[in-house]
Automatic annotation (TrEMBL):
Record protein name field: Cystatin domain-containing protein
Keyword Signal recorded: yes
Taxonomic lineage of the native organism: Eukaryota, Metazoa, Ecdysozoa, Arthropoda, Hexapoda
Signal peptide residues on this chain, from the entry's feature table: 1-24
Source domain of life: Eukaryota
Annotated Gene Ontology cellular component terms: cytoplasm; extracellular space; vesicle
All residue ranges annotated as the Cystatin domain in the record: 26-124
Species whose genome carries this gene: Diploptera punctata (Pacific beetle cockroach)
Amino acid sequence: MGFTHQALFTVLLVFMLFSGHTYTEECAGCPIPANLSDPMVQKYAQDAVAEIKKETNHMSLYYLEEIINATVQVVAGILYHYELIVLRTDLYEGLILREKDLCNVDVWVKEWEDFENITVNSCERQFN
Ligand SMILES: *[C@@H]1O[C@H](CO)[C@@H](O)[C@H](O)[C@H]1NC(C)=O
Ligand SMILES: *[C@@H]1O[C@H](CO)[C@@H](O)[C@H](O)[C@H]1NC(C)=O
Ligand SMILES: *[C@@H]1O[C@H](CO)[C@@H](O)[C@H](O)[C@H]1NC(C)=O
């Protein structure tokens, strides 16, 4: 009983000490929702689209329509996890073909080392 209260008190104290600090201190290693307006979050989303283009079809035009969701996680650098709506446009025999894909991409960066590793986990065509 005494132990429980003490443990609870310690947890509360630690929480109070670290709340209000940046995510690195709040929950090291846990993914937290990213600020979608953050220029870096947007930049890496664009890099993700460039990688999707590189890995799929160089001839198509790819356009980032929307960042559906993004989380950031501190893992020896920062891991951005994205759900993106990517608009793909192809010209085929004079026709313009458009396709919407929901892509799941990880961008792992270590800014101080200029390291960036992009993993395209999936891209699924959206019919709507
Ligand atoms: C999100 O990022 C934008 C642009 O940097 C900034 O103006 C805004 O205050 C941020 N919002 C939060 C909740 O941090
Ligand atoms: C964003 O992704 C995280 C982690 O997968 C999830 O917990 C959260 O609910 C998602 N938010 C939205 C708005 O989809
Ligand atoms: C990037 O990550 C992929 C898969 O996680 C790995 O195969 C590849 O070697 C990595 N590239 C670099 C430069 O670390």
